[in-house]
Each structure stands twice: as structure tokens, then as C-alpha cells.
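Dear Dr. K.,

Following up on our conversation at the group meeting, I've run the structure prediction for Lysyl oxidase homolog from Echeneis naucrates. I'm pasting the input sequence below exactly as I used it, so you can double-check it against your construct before we proceed with anything downstream. Let me know if the numbering doesn't match what you have in your notebook.
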Amino acid sequence: MEKSKRRLQLAFSLLFGLWLPCCLTQTTPSNSATTTATPSTSPQAQTERLKVRLAGYPRKHNEGRVELFYKGEWGTICDDDFSLSNANVLCRQLGFVSATGWTHSAKYGKGQGKIWLDNVLCNGGEKSIELCKSRGWGNSDCTHDEDAGVVCKDERIPGFVDSNILSLTVEEVRLRPIVAMAKKRLPVTEGVVEVKHKDGWAQICDVGWTIKNTRVVCGMLGFPHERKVNKNFYKLSLERQKNHFHIHSVACTGTEVHLAACPMEFSKPNATSSCEGGMAAVVSCMPGPLFIMDGWSRYGHNVRLKGGARLGEGRVEVLKDSEWGTVCDDRWNLQSASVVCRELGFGSAKEALTGGRMGQGMGPIYMNEVKCVGLEKSIWNCPFKNTTSEDCQHMEDAAVRCNIPYMGLENTIRLTGGRTRYEGRVELLSSDSNGTQSWGLICGESWSTPEAMVACRQLGLGYANQGLQETWYWDSSNVTEMVMSGVKCTGNEMSLSQCQHHKTVNCQKAAAKFSAGVICSETASDLVLNASLVQETVYIEDRPLHMLYCAAEEDCLSKSAAKANWPYGHRRLLRFSSQIHNIGRADFKPKAGRHSWVWHACHGHYHSMNIFTHYDLLNANGTKVAEGHKASFCLEDTDCQESVSKRYECANFGDQGITVGCWDLYRHDIDCQWIDITDVKPGNYIMQVVINPNFEVAESDFTNNAMKCNCKYDGHRIWLHNCHVGDALSEEAEKRFEKYPGQLNNQIS
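The predicted C-alpha cells came back this morning:
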């Protein structure tokens, strides 16, 4: 018995001896040597507690790049083998209860200096990151492209106090104007740079301050360019003021998108904040042309933003060979996005969005793997790869959100009476001749979707869902006076004051219940026609009248058909297929509820919109020579992109609409899918198709709702060429296409 026990002990000893080194050995990536992981403690670490901080941008106070203070120097942690257990240890060390996630590949920007730890392996229960296994202090095969970050649960450990936690960040920056006139004018373009500190604002010492720092500050505040400032002008007034210098020695390179990404020194908590040999940093910025009265034409010839609800956001589109196309999101980052933003007259980028977040484009994809440094004048000056359909698809379209100057426009408009903050009666703040300010209403007459789009943009509430001409059901305010009427917007304005309106209020229905209202939404649909399919499928058919009784009932023939010798003779029809895509971020649904849908015996289904498209043939003057109203549609998902499921179908009184990423196909052989050209003489024309022509249903972008083609008709055959969506070509190419202003609706001006 004793012998067998000894044998068993010996076997366990051998097994443990073989197993233990295996567990303590960590394999690093194949290009590095294998090292033995050891706790990161050192004599210094044991006697002096390790300092930890969160840094980087963009971030909230409970997330960021992890930085450790060791041997008098700040450094980062490599993301190799990083785990949630590591993040839990770090978050508790920072005073948070736990971690909700961790980040890799320098999500919060690249750090500087040493990479102190690599291949860190915590079990999750350690008191400090230095007690976890790693390759040892300063032993790393990483670059700062692999800096690790953590996302901590926004809940503090009760009673946690630790002076070693330094969550250094610059979350909010402002310019405080000094000159009296500048205080009254928005945007503020010149003044003292101040950072939010505790419950107040603190200044930055300008010793060592450079124009590169100014560029970064201006970009954050929504300005594309910086300019030199006369420091002597400010010196005397600043010396009289009490300053609290929170930040010193800022050293930006000029490519950063936020001051927090620049190297800087923070004043110690209890130290007297002085700025020997300097004064508070003052900067002067140059606003983009949208925010001044002149110069819009100088900006953004070769780049634009599409599909965004707010100013300074949207899908990035670039111009090449007179045709607009998109940018693929591979390696898309804040530096490249900032080049686009500044090129368009905004500041640096707030967000670089990927995955078609601002809707998908329809044209070519011109760029992939754009690698801007951040100082380029145009995205076309940045290195990039030409792309193919194998590399990228439109579901990878890149987008941006840019910093824009604070204009205070949202302070002069409000919604009242709605069930949520996204809806209600629109009220405007106006001043009388004495300068007294009061709230007033907008006359609901002529109020429609484009006006609602501007109101929602000014409110900062996204896209317009509906513009309402009556708001009796939102009558909760004591405001009754109309202060604006006859409002007509294009839909692109920043505020309602920029739209056309009556100089003096003229409202037929002046009661408050007839004032304008809106329903806003964070998402919207965006319909666009497949122009190339129209060009590919067009043909002429001489159709006998006895086969057109149904079409005549639906008013799909020209007026002269009523005088024809029915059922003898024929009508000449220009036929083609329509494929209408929803490239937006919300499903397109008919405005009318199913209780008001109309049954069409010819088509054998319900139609949910009275007028969904206009089909027209125009002459060189823009006058209609033939019209083929596709008066109404049944809307359904004919087909969809991969990974998108159909949701709408017309059969069996089903739900109608077009899902995001799907399209509705009306084939050329369906009744009314034509223009009646029986009375048209041979010649050159323009064929035009307009979707949702009366803006009945809100969309994120109406500029792509019209499609035009050059059309040649010799009396027997027809040719279509240059078919394109309304916003697909450059202005110059569009002018070459037609020598008269194109129509976007069926109203002849």
C-alpha cells in the first residue's frame, strides 16, 4: 500500500513538473521569440503604487487608451493576448466597478513613448495590472498601432479615492471672445482658448504654442483654417484678468482631430497655476463659406456629402470624369475624414463612419484604402487604391460627421404639444421693433416636407418624417400669434429664416390650430431609380386599342386616345422597366393607411399611393410633348441585397413598402409602364422619370429622385442614351446634357 502511494506521488510530481512550465510559457506571434510570462512587479512597483490613466480621442470619461506611469515615463499596453479579464483589473484600478469591453488597434489614437507591457494575462482578480503575467516591463514587439484600450462600466466603486488615477482628458473646448463686438456675433472665430475643468473653465499657457496647435483647436470648433493672431492686442486685457492655467506645453503636429490627442502637460492638482514668460493661449480661426456671406463656390468642387440629416454629415462622394462616386470604408479613419470635412469648409471630423451608415450610393466606387496624413488640401491628394466590384460594394460606403461652428440656431425654434421631443407644433422666437423677444407660430398654408426638413435640421432632430398643415391635436401652448407665413424652402437651408417667406405675415387661416407642425426622425428612406436598366429595356410597341380598355380607365393614355375609334386602331407606346431602390436608412412606406388603399382590377392588387411616379417626354424647351403618369403603384420588395429579407408584398392585401437594401421592379410588360407617344413627331427629346414627385413621403434626399435620358425618335425606332439620376453628374456635365433648366416635377413653369 505504501509503495503504491509513493508511486502515485511520484507520478503526480512528474506530471506537475511537466505541466507547470507549459502553463507559464506564453507564445507570442510567429515573428517574435517565445518568452516566459512573469508578474510585472519590480522593486519600484512594490514601493510606489503604479499610476494609471485613460487617454485618447474620441472617448467618454469611462473609456480610453490605457497609459501607465513607470520609471518616470508614461507608456501604453500592447493589445496582444488582451482580454476582458485584463480590462476588469484595469477598470477596478481606475475606480470603476468592472469593464464592459476592451479595444484593440489603437481605437482611441496612437500613444507615444514606451510600450510598457505586452502579452498581459490576468485572471481577473488581481489588485493591479502589474501583478498580472506579461513579458516584463518594456519588453514588447508591438508598435503604437496596437495600443490597447478599455471601456469601463460607468459606475464608480463606492468610496474609491486614489490620487494615482489620472483620467486626463480635454472633453470640451471653447473660444471666449474678448472684444465687445465679437461677443455678440456668432460664430465666435477669435478669442482665448478655454477647456472645461471641474465646474468651470481654465486657460492654456501659450509658452511653446504653435500654429499647429491653433489648427487643431480651430478644427475642433468647426473651422477649416487658422490664421495668425495679434497677441499684443490681447496681452494687456488678459493680464488684468485672473487666469487658471490647467494645461501647459501643448505640442500638436496639426493632424490631430482633437486637442486631447496632442501631447501636453497638466497642472498638478494643488499647484499654483502660473504661466511664466507667457499668457493665455489666443487663437483666430477662419470660418468656412457656409458660415459667412461669400465664397461658397471656392469649396468642394470634387467632393460632397449625401444622405445626412444634419449639416456637415453624410456619405462621402467624389467626382471623377464628370460623374460622382463613393469611397470604400477599408482603412477609413478620422484623418482621412478630416481632410474631407476641411475641404468642404467644416472643421475636423467628429466621426469617420463605415458600413454605409449614411445610406448606400448607386454609382461607381472610386477609392479604397484612403490613407490621408491629415494635412492634405483634398482627398484626391491622399494615397488610395482604385477599387473593383470584387474589393468593395456600396454597403461599405464611407461617411463622415464633421465638427461645425456653434451658430445657436436651435435656440430660436422649439416644438410644443407633441408626444415625444421629435414632434409638435413649430414655434419661432422673434423680436419686435423694441427688441422684445417672444415665441410665435408659422402659418400652415404651403407648409410641406421641404420646410419640415429644414425645421428638423435646425432643431437638431434628424430628418423630417412629415410636415403638417394643421396641429389642433397639439394645442398645449398659450402661443397664438402667427409670426411667419408663405414659407418656401429648397430643403438644404440651415434654418427657416434662410427660406423664402412673406415680408409681412399673410395667413388666410390664422387660428392656432392651422399652424405648422413637424414629426422628425433619426432615419429616413431614400429612393433612386436604376437609370441603366431604363436605357437597356426601352422599346416601342404598337398596342391594339382593344387591349387597352383597362389602361384607359386608369388614365394611362394621352388625351387624344379618347377620340380614337375604339376598339379599332392602336396606340404607340414607349415601354421600359423601372427598378426603384431604397438606399436610405429606413423603409419607404406609403403615407396612406391601408383603409384608404384603392383596388385596381386591371392589376389585381391594391394601390397605396395616388401619384408615385411621373413619366414624361420633354422637348428642348422643357415642355411636355407626351406624358405617361404611372398614377399609382403597389409597393413591394421584388428582390433584395444579400443578407436582406423581403418584408413587403402586394398579394393578399399585404403590407406595402420598400425595405432598405431592396428594390421594387415594374417590368416593361406591365400595364401603364409606358409613355404614350402616338402624337409625338420624330425628333430629339429628353425622357424624364420622377419618383415621389409631390414629396408625399419624406426621404433623406430628393435630389436623386429624377432620372433623365437623351432620346432620339425617328418615327419608327427610338434610342435612349446618357440616362442618369439627377445628381449623378457634375454641374458642367448636366449643362451639356440639357441647355434648359431641368424639371423635378410635372409643373410647367
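Two things stood out to me. The chain has a mean pLDDT of 84. The first strand starts at residue 25 and ends at 26.

Best regards,
J.T.
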